[in-house]
Design brief:
Elements lengths: L2 E3 L4 H14 L3 E4 L15 E4 L6 E5 L4 E4 L5 H10 L2 E2 L20 H7 L6 H4 L6 E7 L5 E5 L11 H5 L8 E8 L1 E2 L3 E8 L3 H12 L5 E7 L1 H4 L5 H4 L5 E8 L1 H15 L5 E5 H12 L12 E6 L2 H15 L2 E5 L4 E6 L5 H10 L3 E6 L2 H4 L10 H14 L15
Parallel strand pairs: 1-3, 2-3
Antiparallel strand pairs: 4-5, 5-9, 6-10, 7-8, 7-9, 11-13, 11-14, 12-13, 15-17, 15-18, 16-17
Helix pairs in contact: 6-11
């Protein structure tokens, strides 16, 4: 019978994993459960629920550092940081609504384990770039830790970089420490209407190569722009290219004005201020265009060189009948297609473009038959297997979540 193990402290986590290792029974690690349906379907007989290991244990705003239990809701982290006008600069996404769940179910540990980042990724980096240290339980049932409260405290192997993006296959984290940064005083977004994907990429590239410190650049085709809750976007009746600028008020106003002048040749321009700007980028961050009720299509997250994004997106629309939008200046393609489409074609096309792809949303049957994460070359596959065996020799922590046999 499947059981849910819900430890309330580190010792209980260690005991649960040690028991699983002794019995050689797999554990399915979860926090808030918002990303449970990402990855290959699990075969674990028991669930290790880490949601009780929650709460901020250290927050030194002057030192720009925060520590918390892995089950701490990311919404609680945002609230605490907002009181000090600070933020997680990598802009963690909330994929809960993409899976029909409520907003705010994600946890800090889940964000780190999945190494997720939002539109500011092009400027601030990924979650692992802000991950300072952790404590965890290995698959041997042993406590281990790495890193510290500042970057210079990291000595020896930087295990934080390995655990970030490991999807719970290497250790059950019990404490997480991250770097935080001051939030921008003002945020505005320059909009350019009517561009096709290639023209939008040219506009985004020009903005990103300008001296105006752009923090995000995305493109929505007309059909997806119409699904926005932001009036300027929804009522545009055209595709929307969006360029975000953040910083001190006078600087933001000047830079937006300069960008509108530079981008005027691409189409009519407009600006989003304050709340509207924040709401729009939350929609992009959380993939809201594909989170409508009843949308059961498969959703792919595809990373390619920015100049390849628009041509690849256009080919998918033409050949597969999918819908797409671009983020990261054209380097991130979000694709929604029928579950019954030729998913092998997607991987082939992405590889030819020099990119990689992750199947974010799909039924368990599909996730069991095709690679969810980018297939590894033989050498990297061997290295990954040896790494898994070093941390989890009995294969009890999320076995096969990313790759079969690992």
């Amino acid at each position: 019978m499947s059981t849910i193990l819900k430890p309330e402290n580190v010792d209980q986590v260690r005991d649960a994993v040690a028991w699983a290792a002794a019995e050689e029974t797999p554990l399915d690690l979860i926090g808030g459960g918002s990303k449970r349906a990402i990855g290959r379907p699990g075969n674990a007989a028991h669930t290790l629920d880490l949601s009780a290991l929650a709460g901020i244990t250290l927050y030194e705003s002057e030192e720009l550092v925060l520590s918390a239990g892995p089950g701490t809701p990311i919404a609680d982290v945002h609230a605490a940081l907002a009181e000090q006008n600070q933020e997680l600069a990598f802009e963690p996404p909330d994929y809960g609504p993409l899976f029909g769940q409520s907003v705010g179910t994600g946890t800090l540990g889940g964000i780190i384990a999945a190494n997720l980042a939002g539109p500011r990724r092009i400027k601030a980096g990924a979650a692992r770039d802000h991950f300072l240290g952790f404590s965890a339980i290995s698959g041997r049932g042993e406590v281990f830790k790495s890193g510290g409260r500042v970057v210079k405290n990291v000595t020896g192997y930087d295990l934080s970089k390995i655990l970030a993006g490991s999807w719970g296959t290497l250790g059950a984290m019990t404490q997480v420490t991250v770097k935080v940064l001051p939030a921008a005083a003002k945020t505005r977004t320059v909009l350019v209407f009517g561009c096709g994907g290639r023209a939008a990429t040219a506009a985004m590239t020009r903005a990103l190569q300008s001296p105006y410190e752009v923090s995000a650049a995305a493109w929505l085709p007309q059909s997806l722009a119409g699904r926005s809750d932001v009036g300027y976007i929804k009522d545009a009746g055209a595709s929307v290219t969006a360029i975000r600028v953040e910083g001190p008020g006078p600087s933001v106003e000047y830079r937006c004005g300069a960008l509108r002048t530079q981008l005027a040749e691409f189409g009519t321009t407009e600006e989003l201020h304050g709340h509207n700007s924040g709401a729009f980028w939350s929609e992009i961050r959380d993939v809201r265009p594909f989170a409508m009720a009843g949308d059961a299509r498969a959703v792919w997250k595809i990373s390619v060189p920015p100049q390849s994004g628009a041509p690849l997106a256009s080919s998918f629309v033409e050949t597969l009948g999918g819908e797409v939008f671009l983020d990261w200046g054209g380097g991130l393609v979000w694709l929604a297609v029928s579950v019954d489409t030729d998913h092998g074609h997607i991987r082939t096309a992405v590889s030819a473009a020099g990119g990689h792809a992750t199947l974010i949303r799909a039924p368990a049957e599909l996730r069991a038959t095709i690679p969810v994460f980018q297939p590894l070359d033989p050498g990297l596959a061997k290295l990954s297997k040896r790494l898994k065996e070093s941390f989890d020799p009995r294969g009890v922590l999320n076995p096969g979540r990313m790759y079969a046999g690992i």
